[in-house]
Protein 1
Amino acid sequence: SQARPAPSAHAAPAEAFDAIIVGAGFSGLYQLHRLRDGLGLRAVVLEAGDGIGGTWYWNRYPGARCDSESYAYSYSFSKELEQEWEWSERYPEQPEIMRYLNHVADRFDLRRDIRLGTRVTAARFDGRENRWHVTTAQGGQLTAPFLITAVGCLSTANVPDIPGLESFAGEWYHTGQWPRGGVDFTGKRVGQIGTGSTGIQAAPVIAAQAAHLTVFQRTANYSIPARNAPLTEEQKRHIKANYDEIRRITRASTNGHPFLISPRSALEATPEEREALYEAAWRHGGLQFRATFGDLLVDKAANDTASDFIRDKIRGIVKDPEVAEKLVPLDHPFATKRPPIDTEYFETFNRDNVLLVDVRADPIREITPRGVRTRDHEYPLDIIVFATGFDAMTGPLLAIDIRGEDGQSLREAWADGPRTYLGLQVAGFPNLFTITGPGSPSVLCNMPVAIEQHVDWVTDCIRHLRENRLARIEATGAATDRWVAHVNEVADATLLPLAGSSWYLGANVPGKPRVFMPYAGGMARYRTICDEVAAKGYEGFQLG
Ligand code: N01
């Protein structure tokens, strides 16, 4: 069908598509493949970056490496792709993931339908014609019945509003907007603000190169050794021979990882057994530590056993007892904030050229031309690295002026926090699908697993609409209310909301509503719910 002319009398007519996808990361690439090569739709991907890769395009900071095992942090939709691609390490480094995604883009001939350097600024739904009208910062006007956001959950950089930043005479960078050419720290005095997953990966690498590193820590963090290593030929062969089983486990698991959470309670084990199991998990390394017992995220007493184990490890690694005590997390239970994994993070504080500043005890007051000034000291710096995280989950969506039926804006609809049905749709915004949107497992899951499940569901849904000559689908208000209540209920049954400063809650961004955003009911359970909704003729959605 033909698009109407764009609203402005002088504007060029909008280009018409069957579907518009925003973002060329893991989600957007796969969504394009499914819609174009699976359903034969005319689909286009609009990508703000000058390259594909999404989060991996932007996050090229020192030490950037995936926290999921490489072979599980990959697409499962093509057996040929699984067999021909070879991961080199247990956890892939940022450049290796970029090579993988570029390989996928070439192999499935995706580039011809991807427009790089094209930032979507606005999207409005026209209910008379059941079409989305999309505007780009580059002046483009595009229209399609379906709009699919594949914008990622952690793509809007959060640079804290510290007075004086503009006066700083040195260089500063946010880890999520890292310069493509890299940053040379040789001989420099570097200040790093933030000790989340990113800061914990970056600090050891920066410290090894810089003349001096000052780490400004607001919240001490639990971290488990990653134990990264090259994959042996034997491991590579084993992985390729067992992909079916690996995928079966990732789909059956709570978090989309290639291992299951033990059903056992930490409190049933004797102290000696517990210690031995934690020690084995610590030696094995990685996010699997969290799976040692089944109740670490639901029972505070059980969690205490893991939290205490890690605290003791930190005290054992860090030689200066005063520094060690500052690094010991006390204000939240283990894994209620996304647990980092590291390569020699705590060891970094044994170096002579590294200083830890506890900014809870001595808060940052301002940035001066010379460096960072806290209440009690000034730290002269050449480079400041903001490892300060993201306006997570809602940030990338609300950065676009999205307007649904009757001109209602998403920003208004979500003024008190995000409200979705299944994390896939928003009432009042027909034919808009939000890949890994708030209210879906998303960031609590190994992302490619969550992404493939969403893309497959959306593709099946669009196929259903087209086969039945239906022009629109919209989540009902009642189904949304029930889903939001369910999302809160499952979060409240865990310890997750206890982490007061967590970005899961939006607590890291001043003024952001405090709502637990991801779905904590587990990926396997969520997949079943989504499948049942579809099988019941898209229960909770209005089709027309
Ligand atoms: O961001 P974060 P991140 N003054 O928000 C501190 C994923 N990820 O980029 O905790 C001083 O976790 C803040 O302190 P506090 C992963 O899901 C994946 O590290 O708010 N400090 C915190 O220490 C992860 O969870 C991978 O008190 C300030 C830090 O900055 C998510 O991305 C790798 C401050 C921010 O931590 C986000 O991680 C990396 C201020 N004004 C990340 N503002 C892989 O799998 C904030 N902070 C590879």
Protein 2
Amino acid sequence: MDMTKVQARSGKHNLADLESMREGFDWEEVKKDFSWYKTGKVNAAYEAIDRHAENPDKKDQVALLYSAPDREESVTFQQLSKQSNQTANILKKYGIQKGDRVFLFMPRSPEFYANFFGILKVGAIAGPLFEAFMEQAVRDRLEDSEAAMLITTPDLLGRVPVDELPHLKQIVLVGAENLPEDDYIDYDAEIKEASDEFDIEWVDREDGMLIHYTSGSTGKPKGVYHVHNAMVQHYATGKWVIDFKEDDVYWCTADPGWVTGTSYGIFAPWLNGVTNVIRGGRFTPESWYETLDKNNVTIWYTAPTALRKFVSAGDELVKQYDLSSLRHVLSVGEPLNPEVITWALRVFDLRIHDTWWMTETGAMLIVNLPSMEIRPGSMGRPIPGVEAAIVDNEGNELPPNQMGNLAIKKGWPSMMRAIWKNPGKYESYFINGWYVSGDSAYMDEDGYFWFQGRLDDVINTSGERVGPFEVESKLIEHKAVAEAGVIGKPDPERGEIIKAFITLNPGYEANDSLLEEIRQFVKTGLSAHAAPREIEIKDSIPKTRSGKIMRRLLKSWELGLPTGDTSTLEE
Ligand code: 6R9
């Protein structure tokens, strides 16, 4: 497609506009919008919820507009404030203290959000887990974080290996009809008794708020640790990039088990005091259009994988809905195909604004502001207060149009502050004062960044980050599998699909039912999105002499590309 530039509606000259924001920019100015700037008392739960609940003009505004196939509910800022005071009281009653890790493993529901803020209000650290995780994924995360409490539902409890988690002292069950045993805390009974007043635990801006586990190319998922100070950037990017105005109805489609679902599904909208639509249930183009239509959504933050499905669903479908309230659309998670931008211009008469960031960065870094000209295929330009560059492997800046490591100058407000219990891993992200992202990209002469791919073996399937090691480890737990190597294989709809190469143990014969059994084994042991869509049997898996799986070589074979340097290949 030709790289036609898509001009901003306002007709403002984009570069000048962004440059003028950048000039003399100081994060200190942004901080003045927070109440802690005056009071010195910090807690992100206060800024996001209680501050609005104390404001007579805001308290009765709907904060959370919940819509699921079987349940609809509106919760005002005042109600959410009181409900999270109640959950905070429950946590406190059961001994949760500042700094403890409390994990949430439950579907999106009003109770999820009340508990999330309750955790913050007692000064504890929240760890949201994606509801599709199976036992292994749940165990790894609870074990590594040494979580003291888990808040879950009876349906999901079966995936929690309770007896193997010595640090896990309490389990709260939400929606239990009959409690399985008295070792569990009955949320529904407790909430009836709990006071809706609570003295919030004031924290330091550098105190822990959140842990998100994310995949790298080696080892188990790592706990990315974020602090309350991240709210500064959640708020600012919400205002500049998402363009929040007081009366917006906003819908972020991401689950809070992923970073987009917390930074932009919780903090950005509520720090900016807007009505936040939360949708439960599964994705279908019909149900998502219905959510936009029924709730009169004005701003929509979603992902290319969903947008591509809308494109495939066709133009006739979209005409059945009234989407006239929609005024601003944004995307994250994967490269945004220029075709999708063209489609949105045609069917919604709206541009899609791509944003680039990562679990580790905590908030958006490279974006398309509403006032900017969009160059389809580019992720946009860095926000004010952030310096991005393309660097070589030693951390030296490269000139425009040269491909290299996409890097950010260390020290933006929402940057992760640690990898949980893994200082070596944390340090490894930084070279010569730059945070090196693992993405390859180039920058054009006007400072727009163009994504090229991952530099490591991390897989991005339907916008979800999957570490090959995690899948390989699960595969070799299956009795038939001797060795496994896992790669991402390009796919037009999902970005990448997971492909596994395996060798079989003696006595096992390759056939379709065995392969399906192995696939199911990963699906039910780890999670559906981590299960390989394709499995191929090999006589051996290529490894380096030091025993590392050469995934790059597997990928070259798969794609029929030149195999490059194989000098380290084992005989
Ligand atoms: C927020 C989030 C991060 C990885 C990142 C990159 C890919 C994210 C993108 C994008 C192309 C974009 N990614 N945004 N690729 N264009 N606009 O997605 O966090 O789950 O940690 O994934 O996703 O490869 O490094 P996370």
Protein 3
Amino acid sequence: EIKFYSNPVYLKDTIAGSILFLIDETEQIRSQRIREEFSANVSHELKTPITSIYGFAELLKNDMIPAEEDRVEFLNSIYNESKRLLELTDDIMKISKLEEGSELLKSKVDLKKLSEEVLFSFTKFAEDKSVKLHLKGEASIIANENMMWEMISNLVENAIKYNRENGEVTVELNEDGKVKIKVSDTGIGIPRAKQNRIFERFYRVDESRNKKTGGTGLGLSIVKHIVKNHGGEIKFKSKEGIGTEIEIELPKVT
Ligand code: ADP
């Protein structure tokens, strides 16, 4: 989208000519639109849990729930919705921080050690779903360590979350000029028609399916930002009912 601006040029009070400015606003308009959409989505996403917390609390406060077991159920809902609210605000803050684009502190990161720690942190979550976790290969990189943790952790969390009972998750590291981090699972996969949308903010493949599994719809969007900030690329393959494979390629020194 090209905008025209024409400014008159004065020579001693009389117009001597004019300068024509041509400004390409496509990128500006696009990012403005993305920002507006994001704010609208944030408000909507925050409003849902706040409305239910408020509703449940009001009923409890006014003594409108006579049965003890119903009260416990209401308190549980308040607890769950508050937890969701915390997760949402955490993720939103992470995205805002990444978008500021400020220079990240970088150091040498042993990705094998880091992945071991990430996998360890998911031991209980994986056990509950009877999912086995594996780590292959090794690699090191100059990058921001917290971001590398966040990136691998989001991918592993999804790989477990969207897996099947007795499924497998493998983190594979590789170094051949570039650093490659591949997270594959034997899970439910992503329908082809929806694959190009999964990196969008708040996008979730199937709301009802996800209600049970929890999540904010921001995880992959955070991953995409981290990869972009480190000058890398994301590729993925997914087949419904077979599994998903997400591969990140980063320069050795980012
Ligand atoms: P969420 O918090 O919903 O997990 P993400 O941004 O991490 O949000 O992922 C977006 C959507 O992409 C998820 O809701 C899910 O439907 C789909 N998805 C992500 N990773 C996988 C995976 N490994 N297997 C199947 N579906 C996935």
